[in-house]
Amino acid sequence: MEANSRERIREEIMEDHLRVLVVEDVPSDAELVSRQLNKAGLPHVVRRVETREEFVSAVKSFNPDIILSDYRLPQFDGMAALALAKKLAQSTPFIVVTGSVNEETAVECMKAGASDYVLKEGIVRLGSAVRGALVRQRTLEEKQKAEAEVLRQAEDLRRSNRELEQFALIAAHDIREPLRKIVTLGDLILSRYRGDLDEVGQDYLQRMQSSAEWLAHIVEDLLRYARVVDETQSTELINLNVVVQLAISDLVEDGVESVRDINVGDLGFINGDPWRIRELLRNLLSNAIKFRKPDEPPRIKVRSRDRGDGWTELTVEDSGIGFDEKYLDRIFLPLQRLNERGKFEGTGLGLTACQRIVQRLGGTITARSTPGTGSVFVVTVPSASTRAKPDGAMAKERGSQASKLEEKKVP
């Protein structure tokens, strides 16, 4: 692809009428330069200058495609011209064309930003040097334009996603109240008029109730997800042992059983947003409990390990039903489920939220699993080194962090 691009640029250069600015005090040498460009098949027009004032004026009015400069002139010199060119025409290739230059001077020119240098005694190389400098410059410009376009498209996508997420949040809020009324009225009909309905009517009403309740679950999860992906985020020192206990308390409040089967190690500290890390742990623990084996209590371990490279590895391991790792990418997609809806609760947004939380921290989330043997979810998040604190200070911090997190609970 890059070779094709360079070949296309070479062909364009051969067809262009190049504007060549020559910094030279000897007219015959400027004519020699022009002849060599003609021999190389490079159509061009030359403007010759020999003073600083003429050079500045020509750069602004002539807008050269390339600058060819002698190294020494009576009233000017190549290094001064190069310095000016970097200020006035930074992207324009600059080649030093001189009668004599030692290796040290040549290196000095290249370090200062010259594209190349050509000795007048080897002037036959001028055409290839000019073509090479132009190809490199135009290739760089095309790359920069492509990168700018990618950044623009990425920003457009981010803006579009923000607008879509905001729309979803508004829609979820608007849908929640009518859904509550549908469920409430359905309950009233079933309790007051059950005897007036035949079996088919009762079945229809119960199916309507089930669908409405399912949609209500989706709406609630969408609202929670919208809060997770909201732009605002705080970053602070987090005591993971405090946060995981709060996540377990959330599960208890939600009526989740088997939380006593969660074994939590000494997790230490990380840097992140406390509320979002709490949501991350709540979702991972909820899944570990939800996808347990039938008639077998779940065995869940929560561990962390500071890798020593600025990142901490947090793992949630379970003994549940597991899954085939060929579906690993799919489990993090929104509203995707590997099991039938009636078999396990959930809307398929929990792991999507986990991934977004971790990505916002610059980390990663993945999983290892084998059907029938359980799963291990591995989260990488920024570490936070901290000295051991006195028990009193730790208790004070635990209470403070818990208090702040309670204020952020989703209504």
Q: Count of DSSP helices?
A: 11
Going by CATH, what is the homologous superfamily of the largest domain?
Answer: Histidine kinase-like ATPase, C-terminal domain
Number of structurally distinct domains? 2
Nearest-angstrom radius of gyration? 35 Å
Write a short abstract of this structure.
The protein has 411 residues and is α/β, with parallel strands linked by helices. It is 53% helix and 16% strand. The chain has eleven helices and twelve strands.
Structure write-up:
By secondary structure, the chain is of the alpha/beta class. The protein folds into two domains: 144 residues, Rossmann fold (3-Layer(aba) Sandwich); 176 residues, 2-Layer Sandwich (Heat Shock Protein 90). Helix content is 53%, strand content 16%. The strands form three sheets. The chain has a five-stranded parallel sheet, sandwiched between helices. It has a five-stranded mixed sheet with strand order 7-9-10-12-11. Strands 6-8 form a two-stranded antiparallel sheet. Strand 1, helix 2 and strand 2 form a beta-alpha-beta unit.
